[in-house]
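Bench log. Compound arrived from synthesis this morning; before running ITC I wanted a structural hypothesis for how guanosine-5'-triphosphate sits in the protein. Inputs:
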Amino acid sequence: MEKKCLGCGVKLQIDNENEVGFVPSHLLNKAKYCQRCFKLIHYGKFKDMSKSIDFDNIFQFIKSKNPLIIYLIDSFNIDGSLIDGFNKLFNDCKTLVIANKIDIWPKSMNKNKIYKFIINKLNKKNVKFDDIIGFSSFNSELINKTINKIKSYKNREVFVVGKINSGKSSFINSLIKHKNIDQSLIATSFYPSTTLDLIRVDFKDFYLTDSPGFIDDTNIYNYLNNKNLKKVINLKEVKPISMSLLNETLFIGSLMYISLENDIKARINIYGNSLIKYHKTKTFNLLEKFDSLTNNPLYVPKLNNIVNYEDIDIKLDGNRNMLFIGGLCNIDFLNVKGILHIHKIKDLSVELERSMLNDIK
Ligand SMILES: Nc1nc2c(ncn2[C@@H]2O[C@H](COP(=O)(O)OP(=O)(O)OP(=O)(O)O)[C@@H](O)[C@H]2O)c(=O)[nH]1
Ligand SMILES: [Mg+2]
């Protein structure tokens, strides 16, 4: 019988060290993980093997099972974690949305406002779903609630799908731990494309299957090398950073910058990783300043292809609005009216919405 890696899902093999699933031949019999996952789990070393993922095949297979789909969405990076064409891919399937990583938002924030915000967003983007649950891998009450919800669908086959890094494997691991199931944990990490193939776990009442994260160019993770990812990615509760801007430009690390039209004063709260430098500067010679940051370690490295930038303008209407920047940070504008200029990576998702911190109507 073929043996699969319990960390990433690929078939184990002993022939080629540079291909997925490799284990040294003398370890094959007792190995649970491939060499790549073993190194990730024990030494935090990551090897990108995302090219090996066969999404067409995987999605066809999932559909053929007529499963319950668990659609994992990162509640801190909502737009960046939506799959383009989700409805088309899984049109006939029951869908339970899990709004994950709810613990990254400050504890003081009203979680109902976040859920309501996400529901509005999904409706606006015409995502069809049957139910939604807020979730965090660290909250046993939410884990319990989720297990009961999954059971209530009575589907034997349940597949977890979502974008890279949305937390699919951590989600399943938290259920494995909670139910004390005799199963090795799936490999997880903040590096994109940790999971490479399907991983099916028997929960007795149902089978829960992990899948590789869907990849596109909307998230900041796709543009950073492994070292810089650590400084940018949000893995724990964020503490908002408050500041005001008047005829000034805000550099978000050396990744992008935003400024308001002249003489408009803005009070903002930034929700993001405190390792990023949020740096204010006078609004002139911006491109020169930006280019001078090329040697800064956070500067977007040109990984596989050239990264294109673009300038866009967004109108702030005087309400409390939040700018969501593809997994990088979210910026709350407190009742600012005027034009916001943004210099950003072309395909990075940047969306302005009425802030979830508004009162619920
Ligand atoms: N704070 C917080 N972090 C989480 C949670 N769930 C996952 N993470 C973190 O998010 C990162 C990605 O988690 P994974 O479970 O590997 O994500 P994935 O969706 O399986 O990723 P791929 O396999 O690459 O598609 C890891 O660093 C996790 O620790 C959560 O509920 N809260
Ligand atoms: Mg995974």
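What the model suggests: The helical segments are 35-43, 55-64, 86-89, 111-124, 140-153, 168-179, 226-232, 286-292. The chain has three domains: 1-47, 50-216, 241-354.
ITC booked for Thursday regardless.
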